[in-house]
Amino acid sequence: MSFELIRHDTNVDFVGLRKYAYILSAVLLIAGTLSLLFKGGPQYGIDFAGGFNVQVRFTQDAELDKIRTALNSPVLPGLVVQDFGDAADHEVLLRVSFADQSTNQVRDAVSAGLDAQFGAGAHEIQRLEMVGPKVGADLREKALQAIFYAVLLIATYISGRFEQKWMVAGFMAAGLSAVVYVLDLLNAPTSMSVIAATVATLVLCVVLRLKYALGAMVALIHDVMIPLGFFSLMNKDVDLTIIAALLTIVGYSLNDTIIVYDRIRENLRAKVAPSLDTVINRSVNQTLSRTIITSGTTFLAVLALYIFGGGVIHDFALCMLLGVLAGTYSSIYVAAPVLGFFKPRIDVEDAPKAAAA
Amino acid sequence: MGSLRWRALLAAFVIVVALIYVLPSIPSIRTSSLGAVLPSEEINLGLDLKGGIHLTLGVDLDTALANAITSAGQDLRVEAREKKVLVLRPRLLGTRQLEFTLVKKEQQPEIDDLLKARFGSFDVTTREESGNGQMRYVLTASEKYIKYLEDLTMDQALKTIRNRIDQFGVAEPDIRKQQDNRIIVQLPGLDDPKRAINIIGRTAHLEFKLVDEGADVQAAVAGKVPAESELAYLVDKRGGAEVKTPIVLKSEVVLTGEYITDANVQFDSYGQAYVGMNFNARGARIFEDVTAANVKKRLAIVLDGTVHSAPVIQDRIGGGRASITGHFTTEEAHDLAVVLRAGSLPAPVTILEERTVGPSLGQESIDAGMIAALIGGVFVVVFMSVYYRKAGLIAAFEVVLDIMLILAGLAAFGATLTLPGIAGIILTLGMAVDANVLIYERIREELRHGESVASAIGNGFSRATVTILDSNLTTVIAAVILYQFGTGPVRGFAVTLTLGILASMFTAIFVSRIFFDAWLARRQPGTQPSI
Q: What is the predicted ipTM?
């Protein structure tokens, strides 16, 4: 008939394999989380930490050590020199801490130092960014708020949409807002509020027995923590574009999860199989070729961006690549099996509905 | 059949409108005769693609308030004297209160009348006898007045910065007020960022202050500054090297740059450049009064906290003219005259954030993005056509249509295309096929279950549509939140992502269906769809 990447009668026992999947996820998550804890949170780029970024292009290869010695100046405290983009471009990125110096002072110090070492005209300052500490703190605050509202809205939407529990979903939203309000009154740092809000969401999902929302949330945290942990392990900066990538991953991860859930719900209603595990397996298998095709095309499009998109977009594309991989994997191995935690109740709850349908 | 024709017409209409919006962004078309009839909206490129400067400026409103209240104190003294009422030491108390002493307490009715008539923005919060028949007054600025002053300061700051940029001559500058006393300035395509920042970021806050002749300069340097005085440094650049001499000034500002009507470069008899200024009538009067009252004393000219000169006042100075000398180069004097003429900023302005992208880097980013999009796009198109054959060709056509719709949407809404925005388009390339894949897989499944071709297509579309709406809504939620909390490039990304999702839903659900229905209507009995 036609091509099939995944044979339509494929029937992998995903639920049976979940133990191995949990071990893999746990190893990745624990490694990332330990790294984050050990380093006291993500390594913030200048967007959040404040400071200067200077992107410099040389006409020919310049040794990083020589650049470092050339730029030993009080105007450039905390100097970090690293390679940037393609090796053929001879570009480096300089990071300088903020100590009340102006951009013009930094520009002059960099130009003078590099001219003295490599000769005039051997370098060009292509990009210079300065973020003051106040703006950095504001941007951090805003990014965290964005994550919080994303979590809140999505949890509410999924509970309402999938379980027809709009009231309960509303209750959960109210509960979450209350938690954040109290933390706000206590002047807790926003990072604390986000972690607390996420934990509160999970607890509320369990208490209110919102199984789909719980599964989606677990998958979402999984998919965001893996790139974040990886970035921490690789000592890569988290800046505004990375937050954008993470929020896109949130959307993508849920997109994937919901497609599997839709099928599980449909199969539960149609009463196609006797046990929930069989339903989950069948649903995941039925949507498998779609999952692989979409993830494949998305992965390759982002891979093109990673390889050809240039240095500035490099980390963004890397984060997206990790997110697409984690999201695909989690919708198969994490989100669906989590539904099984509520097994005893699900059968009772869904049986009358299924009979009525 | 009738419905099919209408749907096809609607789709064609959307495509034509999209084309109308996309075409003007292509330079060769914009300049041709066709460009004249097309809409003028074109896709804005963000500074990260075009090159240029992005600045976030913070306006120090507290200082502006302090200046305004101090100057109200000066006005009060002058106006009281005209009514033969003597008022002593009007000065700022805290950040928003004004304190002064009424010398004769029996003049209380007169001063109260004056306060009511001319200083209604202040409430009298303290009115007490302070011995010697004197009265101590404390006035508090009303909330409404403070709000008014803050708005005024922001507007003035905005106007001043715009004036300066106009004098600098930048094409299409974008200057915007933001919440939290912030101003955003975007200067596209500028390749000499250094001088521009010098001119924009310079407060050019000009103050005239009397020198505290009685103060011990050495003690002040050691930290013992007399009350109501402050330590400053006189900077002299004679002979090239900067020499800083400590000097003690009275804190009270006798005159500020806000009264300047004109400023220009002049040269003294040695050919040394200096900046001459003219005051308006009110400024001229204050200047005359101050100089008359302080003959043989030194008056310091303070620009942005640095004392440029502190000449001895030889005589009352009428005519409203003053000058700033300080061994400037001609270029420095010129830039200083520009900022003074354009209006000094009503309050100190600090650069909170600055991003400068060179024009060559911007072009490289566009090129790199285009290559990535092209390669990603070719891959997706080839894969879909091979995997789903004719139906895949439809999907491939739709991917191209999606990109056109995104670009048209960006142009129509006047949104800005940024580097992350290009990333958003490329991401959409991959995700755009998702809706098609969902539909096609569903149709294949239905066919396998032995459904008739027509009902397999019908069921495939209707069942997949629910899933598509559900799954894409969450991505839209994430994008809306990104837009709400993001700034600059991140917002561009959110807009592109949202447009991409909406476009792919439209093409996969609506446009695809037209192709399938058209095929169904024309097919020979018994043929299978190529999917």
A: 0.83
